[in-house]
Amino acid sequence: MSYVERPQPIDAAVTPRFVGPATFMRLPLYSSPIGLDVALTGVPFDGGTTNRAGARQGPREVRNQSTLIRRTHHASGISPYDLINVADIGDAPTNPFSIETSLQLIEDFFKDIKSSGAIPITVGGDHLITLPILRALAREAPIGLIHFDAHSDTNDSYFGGSRYTHGTPFRRAIEEGLLDPKRVIQLGIRGSSYDANELQWAKEQGVTIRYIEDIMATGLDAIMDEAIAVAGEERVYLSFDIDVIDPSMAPGTGTPEIGGLTTREAQLMLRRLQGVDIIGADVVEISPPFDMSNMTALVGATLMFEILCLVASRHQSGSGYGHE
Questions:
Q1: What average pLDDT does the segment 284-302 reach?
Q2: What separation in angstroms does the CA of 144 have from each of 96, 102, 116, 246, 290?
Q3: Quick check: 254 and 49 in contact, CB under 8 A?
Q4: What CATH class does 3-319 carry?
Q5: pTM, rounded to two decimals
Q6: Residue ranges of the domains in the chain?
Q7: CB atoms within 10 A of CB 290
Q8: Would you call 58 helix, strand, or coil by DSSP?
Q9: pLDDT band at 5 (very low <50, low <70, confident <90, very high)
């Protein structure tokens, strides 16, 4: 398939951004991932939120703000739509009244994406959505994880035994054998904790935890070199919680923590992941009810584009996905 036959975004120089239905990057809306290299999708679920809800509105608003994203990356020169087949495939089904039902619905949805051969790039939703995605993508063998977040999300339970919340997905994923903890690195951790030993379990499993202070002391390039070394050369999932960004730049999130990354730092760190075998990615915890001037949703859309360009650049380098 030549690039002119690939799904293409609507040209904002021809059709104004405020015209027509909102889709991720103004791409066509497909009913199936079959034939795609990358499937852009949303998971409008925040049933795992422990305090400030609203992330269920994230996919819709990120679609709106993604109308501001043009087709070519200014630094790399990559136009992903010329290199890979990518489209918006809509949202995973969820049940707002049942966490367990939602987890199964989400897992089944992503199993279909995996079986099609497409790589999912997802907007959440709270961070619990990553667990069923990993169940769909990593059931056969554990994978690596590069995880940007203010919080480790490796707690055991909340409120007297609730094991499925946005603070527990990576503990469950390690327990279920979906992640190799020695290939997991968490970047940007900060903020007060429930107790002094909150991260002890994760550390005992072999998870590499780098606080925001470590990033500032080590430098962006060195910390990302470490991230790549920890995650390894084979299958890696990328999970980006928007609260790793300082709330002055991304206020629309459920659990803000001051002292975070700048948007520029986040972009530079992501760009260091060129060549990594990313089998799926998500940007989560964008909560439009807490946003200001749609700022956080724009950050989410821009980071989604950065990740899309990473996947496309790997295809360009000869490690691509086919469907030609």
A1: 98
A2: 30, 24, 22, 26, 32
A3: yes
A4: alpha beta
A5: 0.95
A6: 3-319
A7: 18
A8: helix
A9: confident
